[in-house]
Amino acid sequence: MSDNNRPESQVPVPHIAEAELAQREGYYYPDYADYTLGQPAEGTDWSRIGKLLWYRKWWILATVLVGTLAGWGVSQFAAPEYETFTKIWIQDQRSGSGPIQAQEILQGEGWADVFRSRAVLRPVVEELHLQLDLLEPEGLDRAVFAGFVTRRDVIPGVYTISGQGDGTWTLARDGEATIQRGRAGQPVGEPAGFEWLPAAELLSAANDIRFSVSSTRGAVSGLASNLVVNYNRNSNIIQATLTWTDPQESATILNALGREFVRLATDLKAQKIREEREMLEEQTQYTQERLQSAEFALESHRVETITLPSEPLVTGIPTGAMGTPGGRGAAQSDPVFGVFSQRKIQADQLSYDLAQVRDLQRDLEQTGEPNVLAIRMIPSAVNSAELNSAIQQLQQKLIDRQTLLYTYTPEYPAVVQLDTEINDLRSIIIPGALRALGTQVESQLDLLNQQIVAQSEDLRQIPRRTIENARLQREMTHAETLHDMLLLRLKEAQLAEATSAPGIEVLDPAWAPTSPLGDTASRIIMLFSMASLGLGIAGVLVLDHLDKRIRHPEQVTGSLGLPVLGVVPRLQAAPDPNSATAAIAVESFRGLRTQIAHVDGHIEGITLVTSPAPREGKSMVSANLAISYATAGYKTLLLDGDTRRGRAQEMFGLKRSPGLTDYLMGRSALEQVLQETNVQNLMLLARGAPGGFNADLLESERMDGLLAQLRETYEVIIIDGPPLAAGADVLMLGERSRKVVIVLRAGSTREDLARAKLETLGNVQLPIVGAVLNAMPKSAPYYDYYVHYYYADAEVAS
Questions:
Q1: Sequence-ordered list of residues with C-beta below 8 angstroms from that of 416, at least 6 positions apart, any chain
Q2: Alpha-carbon gap, residue 585 to 310, rounded angstroms
Q3: Whole-prediction pTM value?
Q4: In this structure, are residues 303 and 282 in contact, taking their beta carbons and an 8 Å threshold?
Q5: Are 544 and 71 within 8 A, CB to CB?
Q6: Considering all CA atoms of the chain, what is the largest pairwise distance in Å, rounded to the nearest integer?
Q7: Residue 417 contacts by C-beta under 8 Å, 6 or more apart in sequence?
Q8: Deepest in the core among 338, 396, 441, 758, taking most CB within 10 A?
Q9: What value, to the nearest 5°, has the Cα angle with vertex 424 and ends 486 and 412?
Q10: In 3-state terms, what secondary structure has residue 607?
Q11: How far apart are the first and last CA of the chain?
């Protein structure tokens, strides 16, 4: 029968005399007592996806065919591509000696980024006018565009300049009227955002020049997309490869890029040396001023103390050849006093250093900028490896940043990275190292003070003027040493600036290729085919994900939590009883009968068949299931419980009334409402006349008595119930049934609707035993597995 509640012919079901045959087939059936809604299965079901793709294979193939045809069409307009390359050697001096190494600003990968940067590409684009494309006439030399300049507000498009033969010209943009008129000698393109002064003889004749204009930014992006730059760290060689449609022009462009890269790299290296020289000059001037200040302080101290009475001689304080502590001519008569004096000198120097450290910390907190030269002038800072290393890194990175800003903007990735590292040094690393230095000096000072206090009587004999003289001498010596070191580096930087070589050389210039790069048309067609294949597969998966209709059994078992009792194929209105479709239908209802009959170990009883919504095939399933029981030898009754819209009688060509409503309202006796069908062992109780019927009678004592009386006569009672959307009617019938079967129509029933209707059952514990997936199309990926395989196996066995 068809499954849309319209009259249709019956599918004959072979008689099975021994119903126990199904018991011996060893089926396992889940318990229906604890039915709950399930959740969609987690993970990817690759088997289901494979079946789905096979089911939609013609749709995917059609997408691939359309994509391939589109690729073929595009390939007809694709110009052949040519590839050329150049190699550039980068000198590596990381292993060399000397403080000045200009190439340290960037390593090999960094130079490759420079080659791809706008700083190299933009000048070449402007020099060769790559933002222009001459369209007509063919063969015209691009040299006619000499002096062509585009502004930032250029309007991209295709333009035509037409000479009028009288020395005048007009400029038009495709799709628009004339945008400018002029005479020979006047610049062209002001309204369009470019400026070009064509030769007078070019416009003397009445001819047209058609060309396209793009923005400089767009031309740079187009050139970059066709340029591949790789760096070989083993040989320090950069190889740049350019793919272009014109072979001669490709070599011209790539050689121009190579020249521009060498020029820019040379400028960067020279700029780095200049930046370092300028920084060393500033530092040398600062240290010279500090040295002069230290010398003046020492000299002033000596002048002030030379007229004072002589201090008692303390032999423990050594004096050098110039009267300074620690000299070679020191008296060594009392080593104990020598130790005491050294401790006192060290304590005073550490106190002075600690005060300077605290002052620098306060300045750093206020300004956020460490005074690196003042830090280096602190004698105790010489022994802090962490602080010296951080200061050197900061100075080097400042030089590198200033050098890069000579060519790039602050948004350039290398500059942004340097900004981050400089900020970390200024705000975290150097302040931390300065705090550590202060803590270290303070600890040393505390230790010396403890030793001094312990020997206070002896230390009182140490001359104060001698100690102050020693401290000033030490400070001057430190300033002199630092100044000499920076002065030496400054001379090296000046020498490097005068003699430094670029260290970058073009090894292999680009040559114009003689043959195109591969088969461009085939590559385009292949690319479109692969893209359309991916699009087809993705489309199938996306549509399947968005489609909320139930199409496969996994949706029933996963989201609804119902076992699939059977899959019924889509039936025609009048199938041939001897056709394969009819035979498959017979097997599907036989299997469904077997599943329902043995779900709880009992064949007899009342089975209610319902569905979430109307027109899902519950009446067809009910009728054919009843036929299956009847032909298997069971006394069967088909009861139409849909008192509002039931049509079970139409399937057998019988009368609607008298029926169930007539009996419940007392208008007819039981013998009057039962009708025989043309199927042996099968009786029909139609729904009856609807007039004046109260649905509450479905849970009345008369209804209970009717069912009890019918169970005494019939072994199997199939109730064709109303849909779940009908309200309480299905609940009343379900409570009086031994089993409830839910019919879902493949490709029609919405999963969310079915789930919502099942959830409306609430706390009513209906004995739902499973679901029937109805109207499964033969082309569905699950049809063969759930339906056809049984019949096929039976044919093989026979």
A1: 410
A2: 130
A3: 0.44
A4: no
A5: no
A6: 149
A7: none
A8: 441
A9: 90
A10: strand
A11: 27
